Amino acid sequence: MNCSELKNILPLHSSGELPSGTRTECEDHLKTCAACAQIVAGERQLDDLMRGAFAAQSLELSPLRTRVRAKIAAAKNPGLLIRWRAPGANPLRWLSLAAACLALLSVGAIYVTSQRSETRLYAAAITDHIDDAVKKVEKQGWRTSPEEIKAFALEQFGTDAFLANLAPADFRLNRVRMCNLKGNRFAHFVFEAGGREVSFFVQSRAGELSGPRVEIAGGQPIFAHASEGYEVAGFQSGKLTVLIVTVFTRPENLRLAREAARRLS
Amino acid sequence: MLPLGPTREERFESEALPHMGNLLGTARRLTGSRKSAEDLVQETMLRGWRAFDQFATGTNCKGWLFRILFNLLSKQRQKTRARPPTVSLDEHCEHHELSAEAALPARLSPDEMFAALDLLPIEHRSVLILSIVEGFTCQEIADLQEIPIGTVMSRISRARANLRQILTRRTEITPLVSPPTLPAAKDTVEGRP
Lengths: 265, 193
What we know:
The complex is a heterodimer. By secondary structure, chain A is α+β, with helices and mostly antiparallel strands.
């Protein structure tokens, strides 16, 4: 073995990975070559200095060990996640599993149905708004004078106090009539604002409104839906359920709902 | 009754956790900050825990954990590489011929050694630490870094020569590459929060 060959395999020599034959050849060369022997000795010195530095560095392991153990413990008990255990041959476990699946499916079906039902309600409000405020389809039953509208409110809701709080002060109440939104009777109030008509569908609060909730105003959720370029915002006060349909943007429509909810609360 | 063997937790506690100090010592020198090093080791241990069922008891747990650590480190470096232009490490590292002419200082403080080590490219630094400090063979390093054994040998030789050169001629050598190789070096003052 010559000096060049030795230098090429020095890392394997240092780590003890050389086969015994090659190792012997290395040792023989080092006995006769002072330059190579000096290189190997220098490497050992460097290695010792490096090991010494690493041994002397202070690494505070205890906090990290605690953190790792805590993380592992959390990974072992993932809170609300249910750990799957095969039911095996126990019929009671299979029955429990089937009951749980059925319950889950029922809840899911009820949720989906309620969502669809509310979506249909919002869509019906948009359709009614388009017919009455945009296309101006001729329909019977409109009350147009302030007196008639006041009488209508008293007749349907037992009060007219809410009329002043429904829309902003600069909105002018044009007319009202009763309408049917997918089986739900609502009073359709049409206001005018800036040359455009805005619909407020109002009903005495009976059930709970649901749908895609977007924010909370005055402790009550506000729901929103959009189709055909129109926005619906729905909310409930203590006594009323209100749907507002406009051609405004969603933030503008939500602002109308938010302010109305505050005034009516 | 059959005797019960150690649980998964007990096995991990006795086989994996004892290597955390080695992992942290290496990670500290490769990440450039104590916090990054601790985060890296924590993630390594968590990944190790999740995959511990795949680890065969009695085989090289330390090597297995180091392999996880280097995989994570490699992914972190890939993310950071896309941002700043970096120096191509192997090409820009001076290759000093093996030489014994300059004598090393008889004593060195850990800080002096680490400052010199930090001047080496991370590829060279890592193989040197794995080989000299952690005692891995060239083949084991090749396996855990997924590179050919020839590359490992070449990097060890060049790293040794360059480190020696830096230590013997510290005042004359300009840094080969910038020492920090990973982001989040906010707490670079050792020992302080």
